[in-house]
Amino acid sequence: MNAIKQYIREDLRSVRPYSSARDEYNGTAGIWLDANENPSITTWNRYPDPLQQSLKEVIAKEKKVATDALFLGNGSDEVLDLLFRLIARPFTDKVAFFDPSYGMYEVLTTLNGLEQVRIPLKSDFTPDWELTQTAIQGTQLFVVCRPNNPTGNLFDRSKLLDLLTEYTGVMIVDEAYIDFSSENSLAELIDEFPNLIIVQTLSKAYGMAGLRVGMAIANPEWIAALNSIKPPYNISSIVQQEAIKQLREQPFSENRAMLIRERERVSDALKRLSIVQKTIDSEANFILFKVENPDKLYAFLSENGVVVRNRSKQLNCEGMLRVSIGTPEENDRFVELLNVFES
Ligand SMILES: *Cc1c(COP(=O)(O)O)cnc(C)c1O
Fold first, then answer.
1. What pTM does this model have?
2. What's the CA-to-centroid distance between 283 and ligand 1, angstroms?
3. Phi, psi (5° rounding) for residue 144?
4. Closest CA relative to residue 139, chosen from 80, 197, 89, 189
5. CA distance 250 to 176
6. Distance from Cα 38 to the centre of ligand 1, integer Å
């Protein structure tokens, strides 16, 4: 058995994917009478490329990974859902994740009929590594958000790799915010660890949340397995074209530098306010901070047209709000309102 196959649900190992018309023919014919498409009327009459080859080439270059190590989904939420389904057996298997973390892990666990193993983070939002090592035993999937949402911190790389080395299941590292962080992606380790899958997205640092493009970066055998279960045309033609265009045109690194600068500026401003009891240092494009009365501050901000996220009901997040980093003007307004609220 190859290195990847053992991690895939036995009943899905030999799925014959739905073979679309465009999969079966890839010559350069000019007359397409194979897919029951309408021959005229709109610009969008043809089905999209099911494997998104052109978009993958552009993303592969940007991410410095091989094209055949890339899988694209309708947002990383779709990528995560397909991975859950590919790996974990409904009504049998267990999924581990930290608490607090991204809410979709719980939703996907429930939706796919899986049992959740929540691993509480310590009050400083770092993992208790010994507890974690014990907790993930007997789970088939371990999803780690790094940097973590909603806390913004980056779990220790070498501790995580120690766990991965021992782990008998599959570790998914959700790097939705990695481009804002001071550390490299773990994507450089996919050849070393067959049970490591990286998930990233164009929604955050690439500013394309509206297009819905997420990705898995993994061993090509994983990519082939994902391709065998995905909806054939999961990324539309408009989205494929537009994402290529944006990736070619936009000055992403300048924008990222601006957001990181702004993050530090907002963080400093929060630390100077007396109503702010705690600010979690962030490696992402948001900051979690603690106040005496989060509901009152939330309402005040919202009455004044500024919406933040109230995270105060999550584990160890009592009193906490999460603010995303906006434009310098938006951040100024946010800080100004906090000052008004304080006085
Ligand atoms: C925002 C976010 C995503 C992105 O989801 P998309 O479906 O790609 O927009 C994934 N994971 C985490 C932790 C996020 O915060």
1. 0.96
2. 15
3. -120, 125
4. 89
5. 19
6. 35
Query: Residues lining ligand 1, CB < 6 A?
Result: 75-77, 102, 145, 149, 174, 176, 201, 203-204, 209, 214
| Atom 1 of ligand 1: nearest residue by CA position | 176
Using a 10 angstrom Cβ sphere, with 0-12 exposed, 13-18 middle and 19 or more buried, the burial of residue 67 is: middle
Each residue's pLDDT tens digit in the chain (343 positions)? 578 999 999 999 988 777 777 777 777 778 888 889 999 889 999 999 999 999 999 999 999 999 999 999 999 999 999 999 999 999 999 999 999 999 999 999 999 999 999 999 999 999 999 999 999 999 999 999 999 999 999 999 999 999 999 999 999 999 999 999 999 999 999 999 999 999 999 999 999 999 999 999 999 999 999 999 999 999 999 999 999 999 999 999 999 999 999 999 999 999 999 999 999 999 999 999 999 999 999 999 999 999 999 999 999 999 999 999 999 999 999 999 999 999 8
Joined tokens for residue 136: 């993930």
Closest atom of ligand 1 to 77 CA is: 7
Report whether the peptide linkage leading into residue 147 is cis, meaning its omega lies within 30 degrees of zero: yes
Closest Cα partner for 183 from 162, 204, 163, 160? 160
